[in-house]
Each structure stands twice: as structure tokens, then as C-alpha cells.
Amino acid sequence: MKPEDMILVSVDDHICEPPDMWDDHIEAKWKDRAPKLVHKPDGTDSWVFEGQQLVNVGLNAVAGRPPEEYGMEPTALDQLRKGCYDVDARIDDMNVNGVLGSLCFSSVPGFVGELFARQDDKEMAAAMVRAYNDWHIDGWCGAHPGRFIPLAIPMMWDAQLMADEVRRVARKGCHAITFPDAPTNLGFPSIHSETWEPFWRACDEEGTIVCIHIGSGTRMKLEDMAAPIEIMIASTPISLYGCAAELTFSKFLRKYDNLKIALSEGGTGWVPYFLERADYVYEHHKYWTKQDFGDKLPSDVFREHIVTCFIDDAVGVRTRDLIGIDNITWECDYPHSDTTWPVAPERLWKSLDGVSDEDINKMTHLNAMKHFNYDPFAHLPREECTVAALRSRATDVDLSLKRGGGGKSPSDYESGYVTIGDVVQQMATAISTPIE
Amino acid sequence: MKPEDMILVSVDDHICEPPDMWDDHIEAKWKDRAPKLVHKPDGTDSWVFEGQQLVNVGLNAVAGRPPEEYGMEPTALDQLRKGCYDVDARIDDMNVNGVLGSLCFSSVPGFVGELFARQDDKEMAAAMVRAYNDWHIDGWCGAHPGRFIPLAIPMMWDAQLMADEVRRVARKGCHAITFPDAPTNLGFPSIHSETWEPFWRACDEEGTIVCIHIGSGTRMKLEDMAAPIEIMIASTPISLYGCAAELTFSKFLRKYDNLKIALSEGGTGWVPYFLERADYVYEHHKYWTKQDFGDKLPSDVFREHIVTCFIDDAVGVRTRDLIGIDNITWECDYPHSDTTWPVAPERLWKSLDGVSDEDINKMTHLNAMKHFNYDPFAHLPREECTVAALRSRATDVDLSLKRGGGGKSPSDYESGYVTIGDVVQQMATAISTPIE
User: Which of A258, A160, A172, A178 is nearest to A215 (CA)?
Assistant: First the structure.
């Protein structure tokens, strides 16, 4: 295989929602209360919902900027690459990067719809969640059949409503839904609570994968203001290690045979260590803890249920036999600063030296198709889905770097480098100017 | 090489301090205020210091119990294997396990002397730290020359006092000292603070390795009472991932060429992932963060300064070229429940299939000797230091499992298995009975 022959499906990208997203999908009675993008007197944009400003319009959506400006936080929609919020431009950006399929996480509602879950008016909140999902499935993914894996957000405050929504969107062809890695951090019951049973059951029965994204529950470590920002960036993916342990030793995962969970943006290179440690702990301690995995080991349960993904992770590729070759998927993370866009195929290929075509195909697209219930070849002939074929359609996409894109500076560089305190300060000021 | 030919040096074991440890080493004026082991009316023992009971006499010191009783928390010294607190018995237990050398962490003062650091009377506290170190170096390690790597505890409240203590104990042959993985969690400045400069400088100049043990700063995740206890046990070693990131991107580590830091009980299998991630983050983000590693990468800085260790970690052995073969050491964790005692050589050997003698020797003892400034062969001929030679001296050590060893039960098993809530409850009741 050559790099241009790969078929790439990314199971973790992001949408910066367009302002017109609520126009066609919210029930008329709630239309006036939907989130609105407001242009502020200082020239910045802000989403406003129920009188509150949301943190940002395009959090870290810096694809297409020169690396020197990755830290400039966009403060207006026109500072973003159009592919961040416009679905046709997104397809162009996928094509030019050789990416066939994409699963896109929400921004405005939070990863798990927590913006809506925080509202007192739960009837309104549920309507917003349904409208968001309808827009995402019909408006965004529906615009280009075969190019997106639809992903719903849940009504976190009511597991029965969540189950109903899983079944409702499944009938519309959506078989993925988000869930936080540590629901207790958002004020919800832990995954060891019986509360979630209706939700797990619905996902199990509908073949719906549960997508747990980094930062969806466990908060980033931001306490040490003097620490270089790299410490936070380097530590974020592996924040899902704890979630992997919670899931592997949970009761519910062993109960629902068909249930699949994706650790979104969690990386893969740490998984062999985790699995060995989980088995060691089980075999070493089960006599007093009374845990019982029957004829299985914790690592077996992990491999039966949990799907990992990576952006650029040579260690994970090298140790893929220990992770489970059927459990590894790939992601692009467009348009966030960790993305390898628009050279994803070239970056990925460097990690694939000596890997068989069969294993490459599993990691690049076959596993994603299987676990996420996604069949692009029902819409597009396979030969039109390769990196080379997609790139041949995108010859007029502008890849010049957008210098001076605008936004908030990350730091005054007083310490010589960007610290966590600098970035906390940068975020805090994003919502400091009044709406009008 | 055969398993019995290995020479094993463990860089992470633990002492349960004997009650007479203060007799010969504390200055006369403070003798009455030294911690005392008190036998309570309910039959349990408790250390008492400045009117406060300490949590336990032998926290998790369960070596020699049947695995069914690993969870029974010892509540009296006579419930422990003698090797936990008696140095001659410890040597027998090392011999029977084929272990030549051992670095032993403190229990009563905490890993970093935080029991003393919490006291208002800093003169008394400093005297206690010095007395502890003198007992550890002269009383414990000094009893069997060549068999222990001495390890001091610091005066965490004063970096200059710490530096002085580094130099004082170095003159006594001690070239290792503890430090917490997240000092801010104990109320001290972060490692990015200039505060610690005198300490780092003293360690650099004296060739003293800084030993950062799991649980010394970052607390275990104990919030979710319904979670199986395995989640906590499986997640604890990798709690040092964040510390590895803090160190690698810190200013001070690049400043002191000679400074070495050990990640004690941190495991090794996750290190290749960490190093790849650290380099990715640096190369991807340095343009806006302004971090500058000169002609090096973060992974180079890690390998120049940071020493890892593992109990049983086949993944780390397999990926040792990515960690750095000179950075890997081995540990036994006697007498805690994760230990492989008394079959450490057999357990370790399973992970060494296909590994060259040179690499085995580095991981089992040569790296520990180099980084911890430890030369057992100055005291014992090399041929007397192998697993086989040591075991031949320990033919009369009683290895029968001590059933019904006593202590606090971990759980009523109401959930079917031990939960985090059960263990929190168990610990809380350990100090609930009055002293008299």
C-alpha cells in the first residue's frame, strides 16, 4: 500500500456551530430562546443563551493558521477557517486532507449538552437537545451522505429521556452519542450508579456507540499558574486512563454484550500498559476484593467493548497487538490545534512503517465502520474514497496559511514562555466585554 | 543467563518503623516528644505524636498473608511479618526473595516527612527529621552494609534546611532523598517556583537522587464510593504521568546537569507514550508557546534526568528501547500488597524472555547502582549477590502463609465486591478508638 491508497475515517473532529443552525430545527415555541451568536461592540462574537455569554465562538479552532498563531484564541466567526462551521467548506477541507469520513463533536452545547442540562426549564432544554441533534444529523451530516458519522448529544439529567433519544436518533440513522468521562464532575451520578441503566440498555439494543471525549467530565489541570502550558497539553489525552479503569471494572459493561464505548482523543500508546496493569491488579487482588470476571480477564472485557483512537501515535501502532488490532481507530481532530490537517496522510504514514495492509485498513477505516455503524461505500464507490481520489477533487482549496487571523493573545511572554496562568487569563477575558 | 543468576536491587520498598527507633538518635531535649507506639485498650496499636493518633501502624503491610487477607488492614505491630520492622528479619526476607539491595521508604513520617512539616514548632520538627534520617542511615541501613540504599526525608518547609540536610546526609553516605510529586497538594510551592533552587542545587552537587513516590503529593481518587477498589489500585502508579510532564517541561531540570529524579512505584509501560506525546506537543506547539529545548527534545531531557522503575511490567520491558535502557530500574514493593515477594525472581523472569544479559543486568541492578550511587560489591563479592547465592543463605526462613493475621476487615461485601467507600470506611475507623 502507498499512503495515497489509504482510506481515512476520523472518529474525532469538531464543529463550530453556524449561527443559522437553529433556524429549521427548533420547535416554533422555543425558537426565541435558542442560543444566538451576537456581534459585540468590541468587534468580537459571542454565543448568548438565556442571558449568559458562552466562553467562545471557536475554542481553539485554529486549523489553517501558522503555528506561531495557534495560541491566538479566535473571538469571531470570521477569524475561523470556513470549514470550521460551513459543511460544504468542511468537505473541501476533508478532501484536501484525504479524509473520507468524520465524526464531529459539538462546541456550543459542550461535549455532552451540558449547556442545556444546566437549565432549570427541562422541557426547553430537552427541546434544544433534540433540535441540536436534528440539525447535526439532517443539516450537517445529511448535506453530504456518506461523509459523516452522525453523533447525538444526550439529556444528561434524565437517563430515560436519554434512552428515548438514543432510539429516536437511531431511527434517523444515528448510532453514536456522547457521554462524559466523569459524570460526577458535572453533578450527575457516577457510572457505577444504577441510574444509567436505561441509557446503557438503549445503546446496547440500538447498536449505538457511546463516545467519551477528553475534557467532557474530568477537567484539565489548571491549578499551577506558573507551569508551562505544555504540561496541560501533554497530560490531557491520558486523562481517559481513569475512565478506562472505571469502565473496565464497572458492572454494566459486562452486562450489555453489544455495548461499545469510544475513548475519543484519548490516544492509544498507554493502553498496553493499562491492560497489563488491570490484569495484574485483578489477578493479584481478586481474592480479597471478590471481583469476578468469570473466565475472562479485565483486558478481555476492555477489548470486547472499548474502542481507542489516535492522532499520531507510533507507540500505539507498534504495540497494536497488545491493544487489540480491532480496537484501534484514527482521528484528525480538525480544527483544533493538535490536528495534523492538512498533512494527516503524510504524518500517519510515518507511523505505519512495516505494518501490513490488513492492519492499516483496520486502523484507518474498517474498525471505525464496524464500531460506529458507518457504511460510506453505500454512497460512494470505494475507489473514490482513497486519499488520492479525494485530494484529486480538492485542487482549488486554498491552503495558504492565514496570518494575522486575529483573536486574543495567549500571553505577554513575561516568563519567557506561555504558562497555564497565561491561558487561564486569556480564557477569562474572552467573555469580559459586555454584549451591548 | 538463568533466573537464579540475576542480581536484584529494589529501588522501592517500605519500612514499618519499630517502636525503639527513636531511642538512640533523637537529641535528649526532644526525646519525650518523639512519636510513640501506644497499645490501645481495644488491643490495637497506634503511633501517637503531639497528641494525635496516626492512621496506622503498618499501612497495607500484608506481605506473607494469604491473598484472601490482603485487605485486612493490620492494626498492631504483631500482625505484621517481622521483616516489616526488624532489619535482621528484613535481610532474611530479602535473601529468601533473592534480593540483594533495597531502598526503603518511610511510613510513620509520611513519604516526605509531612508529619513533621505540619508541626508549628519547626525547631522540634527539624530535629525529628534529622533523627529519623540518622536512624534510617545508621540504625537500619548501617546494620547490614551493602544491603540497603539509604534514603533521607526532607524538611519540606524550608528549602535551605533541605539543602543543608542533603549535604549532611551525603557526608554519611546517603545520596537519595524524597520529594512529593505535587508539592502544592501539601501546601508547598509548585516545582516551577524558585523556592526550591537551594535544594535542587544541593542534590545536583552532591549526586543525590530525588525520589518521588506515588501518593506523596497527588492523592488517590477516592471520591466515588460505589466504584470497585480495583479502579484506585490500577490508576495509582500512572498518577506520576503528570509529574513526569511537570519535570520534563520544568526550567530547573534543564539547569542542573547532574540532577537525577526517580519516579518511585510509577511503572514503566506508559513512558514510551509519554515521551512521544511530550515531543509531539513540543514540536507542534513551540512556535506559539516559545518553549525552547535548544538542540534537544523533551524526551532527551527526560532520559538525561529521570529514572523509572517497575514491579512487573512486560510492556515496559518490551518497549525498553523507547524508554531508554539506562533509565529503567526494578522494585519489589515489600511489604505492600502489590509486591511479588517471595517469588520476585520468578515473576520478573517471565517478562524477560528474549532480553539480552546486558539489558537484564542494567534493569535489575546496574542502573540502580549508577543512579542511586550504590556499590554493594564494595561490601560483598559479586558471586554472593545473585538470587541463588542469597537464597542459599535463607533456607530457614518461614514462608508459610500467616492466616488469620488479624486487623480491620475491608468490607461487608454488601455490593458483592470491595468498593472505594468500603476502604475509606475501613481507614476512618482505624483511628476511631481512643488511646486510653
Answer: A178
Task: Give the single-character DSSP code of B73.
Answer: B
* Other CB atoms within 10 Å distance of the CB of residue B33: 16
Residue A327: C-alpha distances to residues A100, A320, A366 (Å): 20, 9, 10
Amino acid at B47: W
Per-residue pLDDT tens digits for A18-34: 999 999 999 999 999 99
| A185 shares contact with chain B (CB less than 8 Å) | no
CB contact, 8 Å: A351 with chain B? no
On the CB side of B363, how many CA atoms lie within 13 Å of its CA? 32
Check whether the bond before A381 is cis (ω within 30° of 0).
Answer: no
Average pLDDT on B413-427 reads: 87
**pLDDT digit string, tens, across residues B148-172:** 999 999 999 999 999 999 999 999 9
Q: What is the dihedral of CA A198, A200, A204, A210, to 10 degrees?
A: 140
* Burial class of A218 by CB neighbour count within 10 A (0 to 12, 13 to 18, 19+): middle
**Segment holding B210, helix H or strand E:** strand B209-213
pLDDT of residue B423: 87
Going across the sheet that includes A261-264, the strands are: A148-149, A99-105, A8-14, A328-330, A306-310, A261-264, A209-213, A176-178
Please answer yes or no on whether A269 and B289 come within 8 Å at the CB atom: no
B179-205, pLDDT tens digit by residue? 999 999 999 999 999 999 999 999 999
Nearest CB partner across the interface for A418, out of B277, B288, B338: B288
Q: Does the predicted interface ipTM exceed a cut of 0.90? A: yes
**Rg of chain B taking only CA atoms, in angstroms:** 21
Distance from CA of B168 to the nearest CA of A (A): 31
Please give the C-alpha separations between residue B235 and each of A244, A246, B85, B111, B272, in angstroms, as whole numbers: 10, 10, 28, 19, 18
> In this complex, which of B69, B234, B246 lies closest to A277 when CB atoms are compared?
B234
List, as ranges, residues 63-102 from A with C-beta within 8 Å of B: 66-72
| Dihedral angle, C-alpha B422, B424, B426, B432, nearest 10 ° | -140
**Min CA distance, B140 vs chain A (Å)?**
30
Q: How far is Cα of residue A279 from the mean position of the Cα atoms in its chain?
A: 28
Nearest to B115 by CA among B59, B178, B182, B49: B49
Distance from CA of A305 to the nearest CA of B (A): 17
Strand partners, B212: B263
Cα–Cα distance between A146 and A375 in angstroms, integer? 7
